[in-house]
# Entry
Amino acid sequence: MVDLTRTELSVRTERAVLLGVILPDNQDTEMEELHSLARTAGAKVLGSVTQRRSAFDPACYVGRGKADDVAALCADLKADVVLCDSDLLPAQVRNLEKRLDTKVIDRTELILDIFASRAQTRQARCQVELAQLEYSLPRLKRMWTHLSRMEGGIGMRGPGEQQLEEDRRMVGRRIASLKQELRRIERRKESEVRSRSNQVTISLVGYTNAGKSTLMNTLTGAGVFVEDKLFATLETKTRSCDLGGGREILLSDTVGFIRRLPHHLVASFHATLEEARQADLLVHVCDVSAPDLWDQIAAVLGALSELACDKKPMITVLNKTDRLDGELDLPLIREKLENFVPISAINGSGVAELKRMLRDFVESREVEAIVRSDAGDGRLLAFLSRNGRVLGTEYSDGKANVRVRLKPKFIAQLRKSGCEVHTGGMAS
Ligand SMILES: Nc1nc2c(ncn2[C@@H]2O[C@H](COP(=O)(O)OP(=O)(O)OP(=O)(O)O)[C@@H](O)[C@H]2O)c(=O)[nH]1
Ligand SMILES: [Mg+2]
# Structure
């Protein structure tokens, strides 16, 4: 009998069997994605079993007959773990583990494990640990021995229920302290992002592995990490990007999305996605060579709406055109997308067109204005050159007329502080 206490959720070196229920509206490609997730997590995939059903079995996820087949397969292959393509209820995990006599990890736990193994900054580590504690807590019997060390040592603990209670309290304290730390980091991040608000900020968002980091490197030469695995990027990176024509923007590379994104992860990665939430424009990077392109697009749009940034202006980048065998189905794409551009971030085709679109966007955000001020008002002049593009200055009657391109919000700010500002294309 294997140890079913689920003390170790990591599957980094485990021998795994994949198990999926295909519901009537699910795609077969989802098992391929589970395979990628398993591979990314470091597991060795030995086999894969699916069952078509109209609903999950409430007790065991798959039917009992199927569960017995999987048990035999696991014994044959000497599997250590069964990775399920869905999120299971705590009782389903327990029942399935008993029937299969192996550890069972569900989809959210698998994704959390990948995030845990990749988190590098203090913030990412806290975010993942919080998500793991909140998600796994009801699914565990006990795994908190590692926490007792962090909490300063609990010593001998009682058996059974008493032990469980103690574990829960300890976990509760750890969750509270992680939340506190994350709030601190989040406040710092927010003010950091806000302080940059004088520059146009653009965020690369999209499905995991679509090529966001590759495009970031192409546009900025930033040298960020790229890998043909899921969730290569966990931390947002922001770099300035020269679009030509005197236009510079801030570009951020963000963490990728996936369909059925674990809700706890979205919540705890809120701060990481702060850049996307504050961005003036989203560039949605898609892998146009993916067989499930439209499902991926829908998953990203769903996640963006959960983050309340689905109303932002967006350009869709159809990346990896170099991998297409035939032509793009442009009429279909035009029907579905408003603003798109096909590119290859690897060989650079279409990138010039994307830059032109980004430049157009930046220019559309600014308004030309004439600001009248006392000629010696150094503070105002400094404000204008910091927050806009000064086109020229004329002096008359001891006044300076500064012609400047500015974001509308700065014009409002100037007017509010009593400054005389003229807009509306006048040159006089
Ligand atoms: N053929 C081809 N491959 C590309 C292109 N852009 C990116 N890739 C490859 O796609 C894989 C994923 O690229 P990344 O840039 O890491 O993707 P990402 O969207 O940042 O992924 P995550 O950070 O994991 O969400 C890498 O193997 C890249 O080399 C492209 O235009 N053409
Ligand atoms: Mg990336």
Q: What stands out?
A: Residues 366-423 form a domain with the Alpha-Beta Plaits fold (CATH 3.30.70). The mean pLDDT is 84.
